[in-house]
Here is the input.
Amino acid sequence: MTDLDSAVWPMGVTRAAGGVLAVGGVDARALAAEYGTPAWVVDETDFRARAAAFREAFTEAFAPLGATVDVYYAGKAFLCTAVARWVTEEGLRLDTCSAGELAVAIRAGVPGPDIGLHGNNKSDGEIARALDYGVGRIVLDSVPEIGRVADAAAQRGVRAPVMLRITTGVHAGGHEFIATAHEDQKFGVAIAGGQALAALRAILARPELELLGIHCHIGSQIREVAAFEATARRMLELRAELVARTGVLVPEVDLGGGYGISYLPGERALPIGVAARALAETVDTVCQELGTRVPRISIEPGRSIAGPSTFTLYRVGVVKPVTLEDGTVRTYVSVDGGMSDNPRPIMYGAEYTAVIANRVSAATPVLCRVVGKHCESGDIVIRDIRLPGDIAPGDLLAVPGTGAYGRSMASNYNHLPRPPVVAVRDQASRVIVRRETVADLLALDVE
Here is the structure.
């Protein structure tokens, strides 16, 4: 009940005196007292270290091949002005997929060439803003988008740097909603049937477009390297086919992201160094087979940087034992947040763990279900977990692994204001995204 699995928790999280959870030397009780609950608490040192680890591992793995690697932090995982600055300072670029994410990047001062714009349904305004700011690349997601971006570039007298998102047919990831490389879904242009090749030819036919390369993303929460290796091979084969047919060898291949993290004790994520070395070996081997030079490589980790760096701090409210038909007693532990700050359990069946953060307990563990305060029976934070039998109202409960998609997917369901994001570093804490208030909610109403 008191052990902390280092694969699940941020590196700065420890048990202090009396079993109190601390992060970066700051007591969880002090965080709750100062900032209230629920709150997302991010270990800034851990976040930065994970970002740097991706850059260092891939740079080292591909250096013998003479290849440059760009790491794009996927802003969809969690983005705010502070985070945009952190990743830039750690030598990463930034991937955005909406006008809002692009606006955050611009506000943070991220240089245009270090920004990418994604999206399967970009608006004219998003395309225009990206071109006007001089983003380093726009990832085209469909054939109709080719003409739209080319026309927008022509109006401005510029040449738009673009990549084409490829649907590789490699199936990977967890829940079907986060597997993005099968053909029957909304993203990209499929290799099958020559569709991708035809789209690449269409891009080359527009002088307003500069074809930087090809891009893919096969899914999320991937823990095995084989899917990444298979994807790299298909992308490099498509690149070789394009040069054979057109004489154009695109300089860059983006192999996407989706590197899994550990949510539960005992789970182990794919080590980044292992993934980097395996991909470098695959790229080297395939390029030698095809007789093409090794391209510039880019990757897009998001969850694997933001996710493990953050935990959600809740306060326990109602604790209610419920006797089931078979005589089993399940204790329902209600917290002051729920599906509005973490919709992943109800959307994907995602599983989490938790610990009491304000004390240590020697009480016998009991079967619990951690639930939120929303008016939904599906408002479940953790479906099954054993927590100390003396868990009580007022206790603090910490749930790790919520840095990716917690704040990004958060809502105001039941008109709950969204929690703050609190960054901790070197025994000091600060708010990087403030807590919403009821006044914020009411300000949106137009009478």
Notes: The mean pLDDT is 95. The chain has two domains: 13-44+307-443, 67-301.
